[in-house]
Specification:
By secondary structure, this protein is of the alpha+beta class. The protein contains three helices and five strands; from the N terminus they run βααββββα. β3 and β4 form a beta hairpin. The longest helix has 16 residues.
Length: 156
């Protein structure tokens, strides 16, 4: 997904305000769902379910600036019963500006966890013909990683 940095996204020095990367990532997740044939309003109308960010970690590498053209890449890392783990990258051309690890929970309107709908799970695991979706390199089993295991990568 591409987006342009506007004046409203920046501070007085013309640098993107740090919290706006969260907005950019939200747009990226929304467009990922659209590419798969889902929308937030459609999902809520059909299933009563919504998505909420449960956890988000951001690593800022270099700032975006006024008028930059950015891309947001969203990759599925793991899918579990009621959650999606996503890796999102905000880039300017080939330059990584910010990397976000996001855990999104599927919840009822009352905020109770609910299973990710089977149709969305299937589309995420096998996004055949879905254009710009960039899933994890190999198809993921329904519960990944297996219970009791975790994925950890430490960088110096």
């Amino acid at each position: 997904m591409s987006l342009r940095v506007y004046y409203e996204d920046t501070d007085a020095a013309g640098i993107v305000y740090y919290a706006n990367y969260l907005k950019f990532a939200e747009r990226g997740r929304t467009e990922m769902l659209r590419t798969l044939g889902f929308s937030h309003t459609g999902a809520r109308a059909e299933t009563g379910l919504v998505f909420a960010v449960r956890r988000c970690a951001v690593e800022y590498h270099t700032p975006a600036r006024l008028d930059d053209l950015l891309t947001v890449e969203t990759r599925l890392v793991r899918i579990a019963g009621a959650t999606l783990a996503l890796r999102q990258c905000v880039c300017r051309g080939d330059e990584l500006l910010a990397a976000l690890d996001v855990l999104v929970a599927c919840v009822s309107p009352e905020g109770r966890p609910r299973r990710v709908p089977a149709s969305l799970r299937d589309a995420l695991i096998n996004p055949s013909g879905s254009g710009s979706i960039k899933p994890a390199p190999a198809p993921l089993p329904p519960e990944y990683p297996p219970s009791g295991h975790s994925i950890v990568q430490k960088t110096p």
